[in-house]
Amino acid sequence: MRMRRSITVLAGTAALVTVCGCSVQAPGADGKAHPPVHADARPTASAGAPVTGARPSGPGEATPGARPPAVLWSRGDTGRDVRELQARLRQVAWLHTGPTGTYDDSTVRAVQGFQGKRGLPKTGKTDAVTWRRLLRMTREPGEWDLYLMGGQPAAAPDPRCLTGRVLCIDKTTRTLRWMIDGRTVSTVSVRFGSQYTPTREGVFHVYWKSRDHVSTLYDSPMPYAMFFSGGQAVHYSSDFAARGYAGASHGCVNVRDEAAIAELFAQVRNGDKVVVSW
Question: Which class for 85: exposed (0-12), middle (13-18), buried (19 or more C-beta within 10 A)?
């Protein structure tokens, strides 16, 4: 009876110290119990498995020991992917210029603002986590979302542009090539009339140039105007420079690059051919 009570007390004591983080060694060969040793009673996990009860990381909080997300684009990068990033940032009102295709200071600030608003580290670099969040909040940009302010590549010129001195205007790519004997001298982005005031297509010739022209019909400035069909002309447009393809002309061919149209105006002569095509 006394032996059973001793065993019961010893077992209870062992359970108590185990809960407290210690363990009791069994009696040795000499019949004496040795001092307890420390035992870690906290829950453990196998490699790669989460510890039960561990606190998950909050928004934008890196998991201790985790690698930082891969950086996809940062300051100085260029290309079509940067254009898409900028177009998506415009959709959520963090960027108000471009897209330009160049990861510049304004893009860095826009990314920092987007990251800070969502509890992400404000690095200004577009990492994989930032990109996934932006994708969920935006739609796929269209062609003219990507090239809202111009910069799109030109297609092969219309065959009618391959001889002589020609303003070769392509409605599909929204570009104007200045060509001499089949050689492209320069290329600029252009804008056309709306569906209610369309730019006419066909083969024309420059019949009048007016450096500081003002429209008598719309009372709007038309600098560097080169008239080719009635009141339709190739000319500089400050509205195109400011709003890009968000607007349209009254039928003229608008150029947004003032330096480029000034140079073009100096080279084009009355009588030079104008080809407007789809």
Answer: buried
* Residue 277 near residue 192 (C-beta atoms within 8 A): no
Tokens representing 106 are 């304004």
pLDDT at 42 over 50: no
> From CA 79, how far away is CA 158, in angstroms rounded?
27
Q: Whose CA is closest to 204, among 234, 173, 248, 240?
A: 234
CA-CA distance, 274 to 164, in Å (whole number)? Answer: 11
pLDDT at 125 over 50: yes
**Digit-coded pLDDT (tens) for 69-121:** 999 999 999 999 999 999 999 999 999 988 999 999 999 999 999 999 999 99
Q: Phi and psi for 86 in degrees, rounded to 5? A: -65, -40
What is the model's pLDDT at position 64? 58
E strands of 172-277, at which residues? 175-180, 183-191, 202-205, 208-214, 221-229, 232-236, 253-255, 273-277
H/E stretch holding 170 reads strand 165-170
Report the DSSP pairing between strands 183-191 and 202-205: unpaired
Q: How far is CA 99 from CA 35, 270, 275, in A?
A: 73, 36, 29
Full strand arrangement of the beta sheet holding 202-205: 202-205, 273-277, 165-170, 175-180, 183-191, 253-255, 232-236, 221-229, 208-214
**Angle, helices 105-117/128-137, rounded to nearest 10 degrees:** 80
* Pairing of the two strands 232-236 and 253-255: parallel
Q: pTM of this prediction?
A: 0.71
- In the chain, the amino acid numbered 143 is E
Q: Residues 89, 111: contact at Cβ < 8 Å?
A: yes
Backbone φ/ψ region at 53: left (φ over 0), alpha (ψ -120 to 50), beta: left
